[in-house]
Amino acid sequence: MDDLNKPFLITKSLYPENQETPIKFLPHHLIPTNYHFKRNHFNYPKILTQNFLLPISGEVVKSVTFYFNQIINFPATTFTGLLECAGNNRSKFDPKTFGEQWEEGAISQGRWRGVSLSKLLSQTGLTTDAKEVLFEGYDFGKREDSDNYVPFARSLPLKIALHPDTIIAYEYNDKLLSIKHGFPLRLIVPGWYGMASVKWLKKITVINYPFTGPFQAIDYVYYPKDIEPFPVTTTNVNSIIQYPLNYSILDAGNHTIEGIAWSGEGDITTVEISFDGLHWSNAVLLKNTTEPYTWTKWKYQWNALEGEYTIFCRATDSKGRRQPMNAFWNKKGYGYNATPKAHVKIT
């Protein structure tokens, strides 16, 4: 492909840098680093000598500082998995919500390699009071709701932190992480929205209380209209239509409607296509069952006759979760997963 015809990342903001993956134009199973979306709350941290040390302390039997070279020499865990920003598709909420107005591209997928966090915690041991594991990144700055400088920091419940596939990652697609994606070390939490996968890890602290930092107790919380707030955690069942593009004009004849579907809990079991939102037909799923954390490609053969159509797509996962026709509205615009639509004209 000629460079002039290659898609570009879609810039949402420059300071901090937030850019979308051109997801509708990329057929790749592994999204290259230069196309992986960027989500930042602050400017990029400077990479200094201390960035290559990772101390673990708190409710542990012994505090240990791990060197980067130690970490990469532990037995590695490697898997292919997607990351989706919790605000992906936020621009589609009606009424509008607070936050970066992402379209469909705050999602990417690649092969992560690192050391299981549980292996590192087995070196430190845990006290009987351990409840959560707190992760702090080197990125910091002022929030709009405060004059104080704060780091990006979040915690995980002990059960999730000790899952064998929760890893301290140092490679993406068989190369060291790029600086803009968390080099030298970042957390990867498969199945959870991307905010959990803290970048530029500075330190890990095992704590005996619920963490209430601003990126845990204020941001990344669902604030619905009529029920109590609750935390953003696992990725909702979701899908997109990659072809045809919205508002396409196509010739009559055979077309392959295609896209991807994913879920943070369980596998995608069905993807259905409709042209009226009432009657549904199954698409063909193309899924590697040995990769539980990846999206599922799907295709549907359509003999298109002249006219105007709205194509609907919905996915269902093995936990019985199905995409709704309308998104679950919440004040900060997280977890959008309404049934996607593509309007097309056939001539």
UniProtKB/TrEMBL annotation:
Keywords: Metal-binding, Molybdenum, Oxidoreductase. Its cofactor is Mo-molybdopterin. One of its GO terms (biological process) is sulfur compound metabolic process. Residues 234-338 form the Moybdenum cofactor oxidoreductase dimerisation domain. Residues 41-213 form the Oxidoreductase molybdopterin-binding domain. GO terms for molecular function: heme binding; molybdenum ion binding; molybdopterin cofactor binding; sulfite oxidase activity. This is Sulfite oxidase. It comes from Anaerobacillus isosaccharinicus.
